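Troubleshooting log. The previous structure file for this entry was overwritten by mistake, so regenerating from the original sequence record. Sequence copied from the archived sheet and checked twice against the printout by T.R.
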Amino acid sequence: MKNINSAILIFILILCSCKREIKQGTDYLRWIGDIEQNDEIDKSEFTVCNGNDNILQYFNFRKGAVYNGEKSRIINFFNSKYKPVTGKNQDGFIRIRFIVNCQGIAGRYRILQSDENYQPQEFDEKITSQLIEITREIENWEVLEREDFPIDYYMYLVFKIDDGAITEILP
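Regenerated output below.
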């Protein structure tokens, strides 16, 4: 009986550890948060170099913002362009996530908004449109390599908003 139970347990463990292949044509993405091309909002001239299945996540290379000129230039860039939208109780976080291709060009921008407790919240469109447009103006993202081969990677910026003003930019 003990051998039968052990055999059943081993069989179950083998089944659970098997990699399930996703068939082409399903609605599942490779990873949660993958950004697919959307012709309605993305510029058609932006392309990834190594295919959608080879875009690395930002945690794969253990760096913060990889921008030529470091984070201080990004902060100065936003400080010089962003106009606060005050008086409308606009507090929380706005995250803009995007892809940087193997040439250091960014595209496929997506936005996620939350209050200070990380619950979904819609910010005033005057705030979000400014942030997305300024983010799109940023050039000089670093070209990253893995084993001397240029890669495509996901990047993000998080803006802490207090009364419609940017008080912090992460990472």
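Residues 25-170 form one domain. Archived copy saved in two places this time.
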